Amino acid sequence: MKYETVEHCYLCGHAKAEPIGQLDDFRMMRCKTCSFTYIDHRPVEMETDELYSSYFSGSNADYGKCYQGYIQENQHKRSSKFHLNRFHKRVLKKLKKYAPGNQLLDIGCAAGFFMQDARDSGWEPRGIDIAKPALDFARTELSLDVAYGRLKEQQYPDAAFDAVTMFDLIEHLYAPLKELREIHRILKPGGILCIYTPNVESIKRKIQGGRWYAFKPREHNYYFSRKTLQMMLEKRDFEVLYSRTGYTRWLILPNFRNRLRNRPWLLKLVNGSLKLVNETVGRVIFKPFELFNMGDAILLFARKKA
Ligand SMILES: [Zn+2]
């Protein structure tokens, strides 16, 4: 694989930065001028399409390893009539409050589980992704309107959408400012962009440094705080309406769970136990930090300025 070195801050252009975490020979660098955080070297972009194509199905050893079994695991969970995705419910409630209409685009829609919940609450969702098997699932199993490819290839007309969502995606991009310009173009006046991304100012990143779960060389190019995400959005004429952190889990163990994916009953037991641990011990230890916006991930809503 061909790599490139990142020498300047993507957000402000300055070159002075300090490392705040290291894994193998990859370092997370924090800009001394604007505090934006980025990886010091990465695969060149054109080599990543093929690697991401199997992201949720796991035939590639390096990319998205912890998402092997993602589709089956979620499909199983969602088959229960008592299933409720609290995160989706929360996002849809806020979108309904802010967005002018019901045309929605989910960028990085994967298997379409969010789109499915959106459709159930009255939205007309479309989705795009570059992970082919996940898209096939969304199209054939869930009958969703999805397309293969990156945003710039879709050539949507101006002002086509009332809302755009990007969950766990912006940190993977190479040129997020370009993506935001395109999102601004395809949103209606007053349209809403919702972003969910790991929080580099979280208590766990501060404690764990290079072992932080979201530090993923070769996948995550940029690491956002509420401040730097807002700076980037303001550069592209978005007004931030809501920005909070939360969703802190004490234990995740993706690799361990992945090894159990052929033993559903054991996986169910482990998932249940993790949930119990996270909702008791994890809540007591980490919840208080969310009051200071040091939770695992940022949830943000921004409005396209006229
Ligand atoms: Zn900077």
What do these coordinates show?
This protein has 306 residues and is α/β, with parallel strands linked by helices. The chain has one domain (3-304): Rossmann fold, CATH 3.40.50. Helices cover 35% and strands 25% of the residues. The chain contains eleven helices and 13 strands. The protein has helices spanning 48-52, 70-78, 86-98, 113-120, 132-140, 151-154, 176-186, 203-208, 226-235, 254-259, 264-290; strands at 3-5, 17-23, 26-31, 37-39, 41-43, 103-107, 124-129, 145-148, 161-167, 187-198, 222-223, 238-246, 297-304. The strands form three sheets. It has a seven-stranded mixed β-sheet with strand order 8-7-6-9-10-13-12, sandwiched between helices. Strands 2-3-4-11 form a four-stranded antiparallel β-sheet, with no helix packed on it. A two-stranded antiparallel ribbon has the order 1-5. Strand 7, helix 5 and strand 8 form a beta-alpha-beta unit. The chain is globular. The relative contact order is 0.14. Bound molecules: zinc ion. Residues 9, 11-12, 14, 31, 33-34, 36 line the site of zinc ion (ZN).
